[in-house]
């Protein structure tokens, strides 16, 4: 059914680091390369489905390690293994495809079902399994831990050692909570698809719809965050609406009135005004306005030199945050998946 809005103005195709999100400080590093192999980008989910006694469990919880596969691909494989519908497989969030990742899934079980052998397939394997009461749903995890191996040319080993204190100091400071380029699809394909559907005057009905509009909201948020940093920085402003931790927030667009006030509300209006048709479409798609923190902390951050020209980083982030935002805070970062290496 067509939606009552005009043809959308074209979105700027700015989705990759560092051009999409100007940073508020001079870069620590002039050049970084990541994603050179799946092992160079490792992610482990934090939090787990609570285990319960087998006689009260209606699900199996499985800790799955995957390499070079999307979360959706593993969920489909688990559905075939468990003999259930794909929608009955639970997981807390999408994990990077070009990486080695660990995360929890749940599949339905009969209460009397015996404990099965650990399943595995091409590019994935389950390492743990136990009874759980409920389906693991989006956002049920607490965050993610990252272990990154970055190429640091033109830095050599001694030069990397010299910049380690500056890297550690940047990691200890608040980091702009940008959505990473993964949210926009390969080559910003999700944004291109949103533009096509909006230009046609109707919204998609199939399963990719949630991905497309998630990308659209992320684009608007990133544009607003960049403007906020340029004008006011990341420090709390008197007109901010802060979360329970005292961190300023900005809207993820949808139905409802923004909680921002005064100068911050004026800034939001100036950023969103060119995208009025997109905002209108998101409201008519039934999305409710939400808030997202403007900055995050990289917890337990550590960096060291590995090999002659590699920087090893490890840190933890709250759910919904992106390691690529941390890389953007360090300096210009280029993604090079193994397929292109």
Could you walk me through the main structural features you see in this protein, from its secondary elements to its overall organization?
- The protein has 341 residues and is α+β, with helices and mostly antiparallel strands.
- It has two domains: 1-41 and 144-341, Pseudouridine synthase (2-Layer Sandwich), CATH 3.30.2340.10; 48-132, Pseudouridine synthase (2-Layer Sandwich).
- 27% of the residues lie in helices and 24% in strands.
- The chain is built from seven helices and 16 strands.
- It has helices at residues 71-82, 157-172, 189-200, 209-232, 262-272, 276-284, 323-330; strands spanning 32-34, 41-46, 59-67, 90-91, 100-108, 120-121, 124-132, 143-151, 175-176, 241-242, 248-252, 290-293, 295-296, 299-305, 310-318, 333-335.
- The strands form four sheets. Strands 2, 3, 4, 5, 6, 7, 8, 14 and 15 form a nine-stranded mixed beta sheet that branches.
- A hairpin with an 8-residue loop joins strand 4 and strand 5.
- The longest helix is centred in the middle third of the chain and has 24 residues, at 209-232.
- Residues 1-19 have low confidence and may be disordered.
């Amino acid at each position: 059914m067509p939606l009552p809005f005009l043809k959308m103005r074209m979105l700027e195709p700015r989705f990759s680091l560092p051009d999409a999100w100007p940073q508020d400080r001079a870069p620590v590093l002039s050049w970084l390369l990541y994603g050179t192999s799946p092992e160079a980008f490792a992610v482990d989910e934090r939090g787990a489905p609570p285990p319960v006694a087998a006689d009260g469990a209606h699900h199996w919880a499985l800790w799955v390690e995957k390499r070079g596969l999307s979360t959706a691909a593993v969920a489909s494989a688990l559905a075939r293994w468990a003999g259930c519908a794909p929608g009955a497989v639970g997981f807390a969030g999408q994990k990077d495809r070009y990486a080695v990742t660990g995360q929890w899934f749940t599949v339905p079980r009969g209460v009397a079902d015996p404990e099965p052998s650990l399943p595995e397939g091409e590019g994935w394997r389950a390492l743990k399994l136990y009874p759980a009461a409920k389906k693991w749903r989006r956002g049920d995890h607490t965050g993610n831990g990252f272990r990154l191996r970055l190429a640091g040319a033109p830095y050599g080993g001694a030069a990397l050692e010299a910049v380690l204190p500056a890297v550690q100091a940047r990691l200890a400071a608040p980091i702009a909570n940008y959505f990473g380029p993964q949210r926009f699809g390969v080559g910003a394909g999700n944004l291109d698809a949103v533009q096509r559907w909006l230009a046609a005057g109707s919204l998609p009905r199939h399963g990719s719809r949630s991905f497309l509009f998630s990308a659209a909201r992320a684009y608007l948020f990133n544009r607003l965050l960049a403007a906020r940093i340029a004008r006011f920085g990341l420090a709390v402003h008197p007109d901010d609406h802060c979360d329970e931790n005292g961190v300023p927030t900005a809207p993820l667009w949808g139905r409802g009135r923004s909680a921002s006030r005064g100068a911050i509300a004026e800034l939001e209006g100036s950023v969103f005004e060119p995208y009025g048709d997109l905002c209108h479409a998101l409201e008519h798609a039934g999305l409710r306005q939400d808030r997202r923190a403007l900055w995050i902390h990289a917890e337990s951050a550590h960096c060291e030199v590995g090999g002659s020209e590699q920087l090893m980083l490890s840190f933890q982030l709250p759910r919904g945050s992106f390691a690529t935002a941390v890389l953007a805070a360090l300096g210009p970062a280029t993604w090079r998946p193994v397929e292109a290496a």
